[in-house]
Specification:
The structure holds 2 protein chains of 2 kinds. By secondary structure, chain A is an alpha+beta fold. In chain A, a hairpin with a 4-residue loop joins strand 19 and strand 20. Chain A has 5 domains: 160 residues, 3-Layer(aba) Sandwich (MutS, DNA mismatch repair protein, domain I), CATH 3.40.1170; 51 residues, DNA polymerase, domain 1 (Orthogonal Bundle); 119 residues, 2-Layer Sandwich (Dna Ligase, domain 1); 36 residues, no CATH class; 99 residues, no CATH class. Chain A is elongated. The longest helix of chain A has 22 residues. In chain A, the strands form 5 sheets. Chain A has a 6-stranded antiparallel β-barrel. Helix content of chain B is 32%, strand content 23%. In chain B, strands 5-4-6-7-3-8-9-10-11 form a 9-stranded mixed β-sheet, sandwiched between helices. In chain B, strand 8 and strand 9 form a beta hairpin. In chain B, helix 3 crosses helix 4 and helix 5 packs parallel to helix 6. In chain B, 40% of the residues are buried. The chains are: A alpha+beta, B alpha/beta. At the A-B interface, helix 16, strand 13, strand 15 and strand 18 of A face helix 3, helix 4, strand 5, helix 5 and strand 8 of B.
Chain lengths: 547, 260
């Protein structure tokens, strides 16, 4: 393994000259220092005030991990010239296996020199580079750390890693609890620890001890992850100045969509799911995933981006009306913050990205000659997508058949986004439910099923309520029913029962305590000609369906 | 010369084209040619023999939901799409019995306050028929715009429960009344079929009201004619002609005698 280590990376990332004293602090503790600061007596782990006490002119910088990673990116890119399989250990350190590259570049020394030069050119005067080669990445890291002031790469010959590690202090394992115990056991060097038998170490220290033992023996903790990284196909548009009108966003979206589409088709791919991400000047981010079974065309992508941004910007417009601010204001929280989070953006859009989330091999699509089925389904799919931005992804539903006894149970509704509207869906076809449902009410099916059933009163000729006995028989003959079909009615209308039949009992899922339901259904014909299905459960009658 | 006169006198024979293709490449279609099919039994209700694309149709009365389902099933056929807006009680299992294809149905149960007009406009562009109920209120301006959109996109609006709150005039209203149920007794039998009378009233030809009696649904959950058919024929040809009535009555009675 070859490891490139840039010492004091948190400081280097800030771009301050190394000959000026500066420290990076996090949680009031120094986590990195510049060499100049070290000569002043500042050490990692000191409190900020201590550091400032030792060197009053020290520049104190806050830790910014994003920046560290971002600034390190060119370094990683420079090393990718040697091998595609580099492993970023963290900002400031990168390693890669040397087996192939050394053979290609003529040996470990040459490779180490090349890596040193490449990173050195990228960093220039900003920071130092140390390069080490050893059997494992831990040993290579220690080799890079042990590089002396003349900055010659340190190369440990193959098979010599254990010997190289043996005299090094056990503190380098960076496992403070374990190192503390080992130190008290008299094991001060990695070699002393490595000479213990692996079985004993596992027996005493468990998995953590085993990992540490592997490191001390010069074997890697785990083999490096060498999968080829998936190519980043996402495209981004930066707005300068920020865009606050939909037409500018739509224009950018169109260009982006075409760019993405070109990249994808160059790779022989088609996108079936795409994430569209927009960010405003104030840092609000709006991401939505769009899915399309039949692969998204460039126009379809652009359209979706426009809808999403349109919806988002419109939310901002409606949120600016004062009536929207109600409960948050009463609770005393920050109004603007609340509105921003629950509604639209508070500033113009600065960044728009299309990120292909799921790609498939492009197989091409054939459209009908005279418009035809595919085009129609496309139109409907577009309308559905448009409505989803407006009402939310669950608001548009499509039916599927399902078995059941009650009228309400024979159709289930699923979100339209979950199906491909252009394909035949077998769950909607007549033969989908094959199993018989004994106890199902005979045909015809009622035309209305009450989604929130209202309670009804079923009375006999002398106005006393009717129930169903344990044997599934009515306690009396129904003569009168109180119900009202208009919602929120205060007074119920009494209607005479002209004819009736039933009850049809249904004792469902008796094997499961939670979903067990015991019901009985009754068909009623009333004096106004209407006919209904009422159902009794726990002694209460409900209006289930109306013909 | 002979050759030429022959060529002039006889127009060149055009190649035979598929009539369906001809209909598609025809440059202009009149609105009354753009009809969607209705069930044969309900044809007398419609002045043009079908529902014109772009129309607003009101359906009113007990049993009107069944009429809507029967019209949807025949009107959409194999390819048409329907969107059902704000009607969570619409039972698609019954609509499927009438023959509606369930994979051509979109449901928007809650269009959301203030969004209805946008939702309807979007749907009218994509689907053939949009069904909505009077609980969904739309302002007069939006309604006019939506009707215009429907006409332009050649899609149809169905107003269940008569479109009572719809601000613009409807092209045709069908009101349904229940004649009677068959099959249900005092604690025995089950609901088998329902005879309804559907009456049409429209802006055009509104002087005469047309009505038909049908079974809706019949014992299989479909639309069917009322039996025996002969009773329907009595009224139609010359209802004032006593001889015709006499002969018909005699015929029917004869039939009954023979049957018994």
């Amino acid at each position: 393994m070859l490891t490139v280590w840039c010492p004091d990376w948190p400081v280097v990332a800030w771009g301050v000259p190394l000959d000026e004293p500066s420290v990076v602090v996090s949680a009031n503790r120094v986590i990195a220092t510049s060499p100049a600061a070290r000569t002043e007596g500042i050490a990692v782990g000191q409190r900020r005030r201590d550091a400032q006490g030792r060197c009053p002119e020290v520049a104190v910088l806050d830790r910014d991990t994003d920046r560290e990673a971002r600034v390190f990116e060119p370094v990683a890119a420079a090393l990718e010239a040697f091998t595609p399989r580099i492993e970023l250990v963290g900002p400031g350190m990168v390693s890669f296996p040397t087996l192939g590259p050394s053979r290609f570049f003529g040996g470990d020394e040459e490779l180490a020199d090349l890596a040193f030069d490449a990173v050195g050119t990228v960093l220039g005067e900003r920071g130092e580079v140390r390069v080490g080669i050893a059997d494992g990445s831990f040993a290579a890291y220690l080799a890079a750390r042990s590089v002396s002031a003349q900055l010659q790469p340190r190369i440990v010959a193959p098979g010599q890693s254990a010997g190289f590690l043996a005299p090094i202090t056990i503190q380098t394992l960076e496992r403070s609890d374990l190192v503390d115990v080992l130190g008290r056991l008299g094991l001060q060097t990695l070699g002393a620890f490595a000479s213990l038998s692996a079985a004993d170490v596992v027996g005493r220290f468990g998995r953590e001890g085993q990992l540490a033992h592997r490191l001390a023996s010069g074997v890697d903790e785990h083999t490096p992850d060498l999968r080829k990284p998936g190519e980043d196909l996402s495209v981004t548009w930066l707005f300068e100045p920020a865009a606050d009108r939909i037409d500018r966003c739509a224009f950018a979206a169109k260009a982006l969509a075409e760019e993405l589409h070109a990249t994808l088709s160059a790779n022989g791919l088609a996108c079936v799911r795409v994430a569209i991400e927009a960010e405003t000047e104030n840092g609000e981010c709006h991401v939505r995933l769009w899915r399309h079974e039949g692969a998204l065309s460039a126009a379809a992508l652009a359209e979706r981006a426009r809808w999403q941004l349109d919806g988002w910007l419109q939310m901002a417009a409606s949120a600016s009306k004062p009536k929207k601010i109600d409960q948050e204001a009463r609770k005393g929280t920050d109004q603007n913050d609340e509105v921003a989070r629950s509604n639209g953006p508070t500033a113009g859009i600065t960044r728009l990205s299309l990120i292909p989330d799921e790609v498939v091999a492009a197989s091409g699509r054939q459209l009908g000659f005279w418009g035809g089925r595919a085009e129609r389904a496309d139109e409907v799919t577009r309308a559905v997508a448009r409505l989803q931005t407006l009402l939310g992804p669950e608001a548009i539903q499509v039916p599927e058949r399902r078995g059941g006894r009650g009228a309400a149970e024979q159709i289930s509704l699923i979100p339209a986004a979950a199906v491909d509207l252009g394909e035949t869906r077998i769950a909607t076809e007549v033969g989908w439910v094959k199993e018989p449902w004994p106890g199902q009410l005979p045909l015809p099916v009622p035309s209305r099923v009450w989604s929130d059933p209202q309670e009804v009163q079923l009375l006999d000729a002398i106005d006393s309520p009717i129930g169903v006995s344990g044997r599934g028989e009515l306690t009396s003959n129904p003569a009168m029913v109180c119900l009202d079909l208009t919602p929120h009615a205060t007074r119920r209308r009494r209607s005479h029962v002209v004819a009736w039949a039933g009850p049809w009992p249904a004792d469902e899922r008796w094997w499961d305590n939670d979903s067990h339901r015991r019901r009985a259904r009754l068909q009623l014909e009333l004096d106004d000609g209407s006919a209904h299905v009422v159902v009794i459960e726990h002694g209460v009658w409900w209006l289930e369906a109306t013909f | 010369m002979d050759h030429r006169t022959a060529a002039l006198g006889q127009p060149l024979a055009r190649p035979e084209l598929d009539p369906e293709l001809l209909a598609k490449i025809q440059p202009v279609t009149l609105s009354r040619d753009r009809l969607i099919d209705v069930p044969d039994l309900l044809v007398p209700l419609f002045p043009d023999g079908g529902i014109q694309r772009g129309w607003s149709l009101g359906l009113d009365g007990h049993g009107s939901w069944g009429v809507a389902m029967a019209l949807l099933a025949s009107g959409l056929g194999q390819e048409g799409w329907v969107a059902i807006v704000g009607l969570p009680t619409f039972n698609l299992a019954a609509a499927a019995q009438y023959g509606l294809r369930l994979d051509r149905v979109l449901l928007v149960d809650e269009p959301g306050p203030g969004r209805l007009a946008t939702v309807l406009a979007t749907l009218l562009e994509a689907v053939d028929i949009v069904v909505l109920s009077p609980q969904n209120r739309v302002g007069a301006r939006d309604a006019r715009r939506l009707v215009g959109r429907a006409r332009e996109q050649e899609s149809i609006l169905f107003h269940l429960d008569g479109g009572a709150t719809w601000p613009t005039k409807l092209n045709l209203s069908l009101s349904t009344s229940i004649v009677g149920w068959e099959g249900l007794g005092q604690g025995h039998g089950h609901l088998r079929s329902r005879q309804v009378r559907v009456q049409a009233q429209g802006r055009r030809g509104s002087s005469q009201k047309v009505s038909v009696d049908v079974l809706l649904p019949d014992s299989k959950g479909k639309l069917a004619s009322v039996e025996p058919v002969k009773f329907a024929q009595v009224e139609s040809p010359h209802p004032t002609d006593p001889i015709a009535i006499h002969s018909l009555v005699a015929e029917i009675e004869g039939g009954r005698v023979r049957a018994s």
